[in-house]
Amino acid sequence: MADLMPILLFGLVGAAAYFGYQQMQRDAARVSERNRRSEAEMRTGAQGTLVRGEDGVFRLERD
Asked: Looking at the chain, which runs of residues are DSSP E strands?
């Protein structure tokens, strides 16, 4: 039983590190896309990005 405890501890720490890394990757991709969109808006002088909704009406894109 005593030999099992360190394996469980390292397993939990490894799983937490893996899921934390995955979350960091998603956040980095989202921030990168937001920066790219912001730079494009500044270049063209736009006030925002319009996207077509399910009902066919164009609205400002939300982050």
From this structure: 50-52, 58-60
d(CA 37, CA 51): 13
Read off the pLDDT of residues 9-32 as tens digits, 9 standing for 90 and up: 999 999 999 999 999 999 999 999
Buried b (16+ CB within 10 A) or exposed e, 1-34: eeeeeeeeeeeeeeeeeeeeeeeeeeeeeeeeee
H/E run at residue 59 = strand 58-60
Contact (CB, 8 A) for 40 and 51 = no
Q: How confident is the model at residue 62 (pLDDT cuts 50, 70, 90)?
A: confident
In the three-class reduction of DSSP (H, G, I as helix; E, B as strand; rest coil), residue 15 is classed as: helix
And the tokens for 22?
């995955």
